[in-house]
Amino acid sequence: MAPSALRSWLPCLLLGVWAAHHAHARDTHALTKYRWVTGEWGVCWSENGCGRGSEERTVWCGDTHGRPLPPILCKGREKPSNSRPCYTACADGTWVADQWSPCQTDAPTQVDADGLCSGRRVRNVSCQVDGVVVPSPGACPDPAPATVAPCTALCPQGCVVGPWGGWSPCETCEASKHRTRSVIVAPAHGGAPCPPLSEYRLCIADCVQSPDASFPEDAREQERKQEREQAREKEEWEEEEEKGSSSVRLRVGEWGACTSLLPGQAPPPSPAAADASLYFARDADATVPEASRDVDLGPSNAILEVYPPEALRAEEEQEEEQQRQKDAERIGDDAAGPTEQVPRVGRQERELSCLHANGTRLPLRRCLIGRGRVAARTRTCVVPRDCSVGDWSTWSTIIPGCVAPSGLVVREVRERRRTGKALQHGDGVPCPHLLERHTLPDPSLQPCDTRYQWVSSAWGPCVASIGVEEAAVRCGGGVQTRQLTCVRAADHVPVADDLCVHVEPPPRVQRCEVGCERDCVVGPWSAWGVCTPTDCTASPPPATPGFQRRRREIVVTPSSGGAECPPLEEQSECHEAQCHQWVLGPWSSCQMDNLAHSCGPGHQTRNATCLDSAGVPAPMEECRVELGPAPRERECHMPCAFDCVVGSWSAWSPCTRPCASQLQVGYTQRNTSVVAPPGPGGLSCPAPDELTQVETCRVEPCGGAAWVAGDWRPCTLPARASCGPGRQTRPLFCRDHLNNTLPGYRCGGLTRPSLERACEVSCGTACTVTSWSEWSPCLSPDPCPMDGVLVSSVQRRWRRVLVAPSDGGSPCPPLDEERGCAHAPVSCSAHHWRAGPWSRCALADDVECGLGFRVRRVECLDAVGNVVEATHCLLGDKMVPESSAECEVSCATPCVTSMWTPWTSCPIHPPCGHFSSRTRELLDESSDNPLCQNLILEEKEPCQCHSFYTRHSGSWSSCLVGAGGEDDSKGTGGAGVSPLLGTDSGWCGVGRRYRALLCIRDDGVLAHPSACGHDGIESEPCMVECPSDCRVGAWGEWSACNASCGAGIQFRRREVVQPSLWGGRPCPETSEARACWGECSSSWVPGGWTECQLGPKQDCGSGTQKRIVRCMRESDTGLEVEVSAEECDVTAQPEGQQACRVSCPGECVVSSWSSWSQCPQGCPAQSHRSRSREVVRRPVGNVATCPQLVEEEPCLRGVSCWQYSWHVGNWTSCVPLGHSSCGEGVRNRPVTCIRSGDMAVPERFCPRDTRPTPQETWCYVDCPIDCEVTPWTPWDDSKCSCGENSGEMIRHRYLSVNPSESGRPCPANLQESRPCPAIPCYTWERGPWSQCKLEASECGHGYVERNVSCVGPGGQTVAPQLCLALVHVGGHTWPYLARALDLNTKDGCYVPCEGDCELTEWTSWSHCHRDCYRGHQGGTQTRSRAVLTEGTPQRVDSRTSCPGPLWETRPCLAGPCLNFTWEIRNGTVECVRGDGLVVTGGCEGTPRPCLPECTVRGSVCSGLGACVCQSGLRPRYSEKQRFRLTACVPVLNLTFPLPLPLSEAKYLPEDINVWMFAMVGVGSAFVVFVAISMYLLCQSPREQTSAPVTLRRQKTLRHRPVMLGQPLLMFMR
């Protein structure tokens, strides 16, 4: 378009867009004002007047007020429905539902936890009125019964086939080659069928590839050759027919079904016989054709070549159908009756046909000419009946699955059962297993404690030891136990404890402490107070005797139950009572009366203080008024030069009594001596008796009166109260220290103790028990008291005590209950098989001789002989007896015999000359027939004779106690053995030990142990000593503290009465030590010095004097007693002898030396100590003549100067608190203040802030908790094997309670083993199958045979029971075991005739396929055969079907578990069996790996083996390779902002409706119209003249819709 045209178009286009947008916005805004309005629903209308119908209502488009508007203004997609279904009940219609169809599983399906697949079942449902189905369902009420329901069924098992075998070789280029494969798992339960088991390929391809191969002729030449061969064969057949040649084949058909005939009924003709025009003779006068008179037809009747009329055939078919219906009705009525327990004898037929060598059928007589005995057409059989079983019960949980706290996964095991209603007969299907268990997979398991929980009882009393010496602890530590009960978590109903085996139990044993009662401890008495009048407030005080008091403090406050404190205050009567007392100070030095004199008379003074009776200072005047002046001054004398001088007084001696009584007081004394005799004119010396002073001491009374409270009386409760709070009182006495009762006034003024207190009488703890357990099953006792004895069947339930009663609480209710069952008494469970008598040997009604059958009834009986359901016996361990047995009716003699029994096995230890035999017996009347007496009824074969000897194998096992064997003695507890070592604990007692014995035959072959007269195990009694705990005596008294000052050690000991033996509790400590502290109260007490002993005839001068120095300590009574000198500081011992001097008159006299001063702390260098003395008498003349008054010496370390330090000893023994032998205790360590030289001194010498702490700490003496183990598990003989190295069987036990340090240790062995019996390995020896036996025929169906025997190590045939010993034969018949264990000795075979279908031989049986994941034990095995050629229809009369099935299954009991999984092999994904075999099928339902791997980012491998994108991603595939994933891209979401009108109106593609299309169409037309109009108006005049307007208009509009012409014409107008 030209630029000028564009410029002209642009305004027009903008104008059109604006107009369209404005119109759209206006319309959108208008839509929000309109909505759909609905009216009321009408009546329900239906075609039949009732039932299903419909009801309608009016719907219109309206504004906000509901006024009608055109529908185009409202959104069509939001229009509500104007009709809905309804229902009107009919009075007479009913729904009739048919039975549900079998469950059809879905495909694909999912497997639930029980191994079942989900599916659905359907049924027909019809509506009937008066029994007539009406076409319309409206006559029946809603809702109709469901026609489809979900269900579960056995999952379909698809066919699994193995890999292809190799191609067969090509014989010629015209031939074909084939290859086959076998069926591994047969299809079942509607699974996928098997694919072809054989495939063919022409050999021409191989001939073309091989240069040496000959090329085939062309097609025309092949046709001519084939025509010549057919003509030659026809000529040969005609010649052979004329000559009676032997190129004919007698073919034996397959036996038909065994049918039962009623007496007098003729056998029905078989279809095969009809085709051959051969029927059994029905009339007695039937004649045999000449051609066949010399033919021996065996046991069957004569064969007639007749052609019965069609009416006879129809009549026979009708009679057969009627009889079949009667039999079916009778079987249905009597299936459970006794008549059906006896098998029925019937007949079987098979077809005999004659074929030419080229496959053409000939008359049968052609094949019978010249033959002797031929195969029988009819034989006797037992009518087969399959074992009838009931439906499976629902799954019941045997072992609940859960996850233990330790992480152990306990898989849930479920069980289901079914009943066996009827046993098999003949070749019917034997009874399958009636009990099935499977294990659930791990996922979705709950914790074990959500199903079952342990509930614990209250803790028992605290005892010192669990076991024989169990005794309650009164004070101190011990152990306590409680009982655990397993309950259901949902309702707390008690269950068997085994169900909680995987739930972590709470502690059953714990340590405990019984608080020791803390007795009151008081300190020493204070000194007696002054003798005080009874009333010091009176003036003057009364003249009655006064009193004096003393007190003591509480050191340890008593606990509840502890001994209360003794009186803390005493008072005693006294005389010379006074309300005040003088307190006098020491005397001063002697002051001269004449200060100018230095000797002579003088005086001494002292201070005095007044105190009242309470010891409080009082005014001096009060004391002077009552007591007079205080003695504050006295005379003294200072010796002059010639006066007598007496030395200082010695210390007072210890008081002779601790206290004073009315008759006795204590005394003390002191002495002095003359140190200077008098001179001329001096004062004389005192008399000798004045040199000793004696005074009374300890004049305080020994005790006084005090208030003593009696025992508390019983608690008194309020009226009508039997327990709860109350009050109790006690009496009060005034007693002296000798416990003599005194008048109350003697204790007046003392504080009275409380005489009343609150108390409480315990209401007691009521007994608390668990809920009742479930009633036990209503079963008879097991084992039975006697076979056949009726016992009452009872049920029991129990509960356990959680809290035992105490303090008079409610006693426990009965813990066990028993009730009789609702039904009558039942017999003991002793079910067994009973086989009835054999019937006569029966033949089919048209069979005269040959093999027949005898039958008998086989029933299951209880102990009293009642016939019960066969299920009870099928679940037992006995094989089902045979209900039918072959017998033989002789065709030559009138004798009936049983079949030969199997050869008896030779005795295990046969003497030479023994035989193996087999027998048969005469049956029916044959035993009385003389013609039958010469029959051989027993055959014998000589047995090999051997000698046997026994040889030991291996060493003796350990001594086994408790369930070690059947002859084990029970363990017996010994002395000191806990009752926990019960008789079945397997800890100790009399047991047995074992070793294997080998029975060896003389040729070195291992024989059965019974050949040597033993069971392969030798045992002898042994003894396991029971643990004997250590016993100790009582503790002795604590020894005296070995230190008198500072810390020391005390000891106590106990003796070992009985040592620990054989794993008993170890001996505890036999000695204990604890720290003790000496009071450091011993001190040296020197006596007075004696007179100074001078030389002979001397009155003054130097001499010696002595004194007694004793080590004294204050005893508990307060007396000073002499102790060993070792308790005092030897280094500080005063001298007992010293030099002395008696000064002559006029000489200087000095006093004794004072004590040495203390050396400085730490003994610094150049430190000194000093002592001094004073001048007592001045000398005459110069005082300088007096001796030295001060003396110094250096401080010497270790002599006069000391260092002090703290010494810490080791921790002593842990001493339990109270009277217990274990539990919490204390231990301490000695802390002593040590002076240099290792001398213990009082603690005041060491610094307090550096004292080590602690001196005492808590500790624990272990209370013995013995080891406890679980009972022994049953013997695990899974490791046992046959042969000389038979292995060992193992049993285990586990720890249930770990022992404490002082408890009885656990046994060394938690696992024990014993040898397995040395049993020879017996195996089934299966011989090769024979050639197919066709019974004098050339082709068709026959049988093959083989020998199957149980052989031992030397190849000797033994009894089959030895090979069946490892198989559970209970509940199975021999036919079932023969199939399951591949023990059949006879099998069918097939030899094709010319032109018949050719099959391969049967493959070997496959593995035992079963659901190993769920633990199923029973499975199936499969064998198959493949079709090689299907035969030539034109040559075998259009018979193209192959005989028999192509695969067979049989049950199996054991074998390896083989699963099917996908594997990548050689670049391909293949389904592989567990043993590596590549199969087809079998992996359906399992995730298939992707090949190649999913490398595209965001892709994952699906379960179908394809790479797919993850959620939220969109796949992109390759354009060249279909379905090849190349990328995973995010899915684009429409999240961008839309214009407001579009956003509100939601004009998205999925929301477009008819109204929008109309609006868009109108708007588009309008825009086009405006654009065209603007274009026409804007054309230039030059362009208008270039062409007529009409022509341009036609050219422009010829492709436009016709509808646009009308607006255009209107516009032009």
Explained architecture:
The chain has 1613 residues and is mainly β. It is 11% helix and 30% strand. The protein has 15 helices and 109 strands. The strands form 45 sheets. It has a five-stranded mixed β-sheet. Helix 1 (3-31) runs antiparallel to helix 12 (1554-1577). It is elongated, with a radius of gyration of 63 Å. It starts with a helix and ends with a helix. Residues 1-10, 213-219, 262-316, 326-339, 965-984, 1434-1440, 1534-1553 and 1580-1613 have low confidence and may be disordered.
Approximately what portion of the residues adopt beta-strand conformation?
25-35%
Radius of gyration: 63 Å
- What strand order characterises the main sheet? 22-21-16-95-98
* Unreliable parts: 1-10, 213-219, 262-316, 326-339, 965-984, 1434-1440, 1534-1553, 1580-1613
N→C terminal distance:
29 Å
What does the overall shape look like? elongated
Task: Classify the helix fraction into a percent range.
Answer: 10-25%
Task: Give a short account of the largest sheet.
Answer: 5 strands, mixed
Oligomer: single chain
> If you average the pLDDT, what whole number results?
78
Which structural class do you get from the secondary structure elements? mainly beta
Q: How many β strands by DSSP?
A: 109
Number of helices: 15
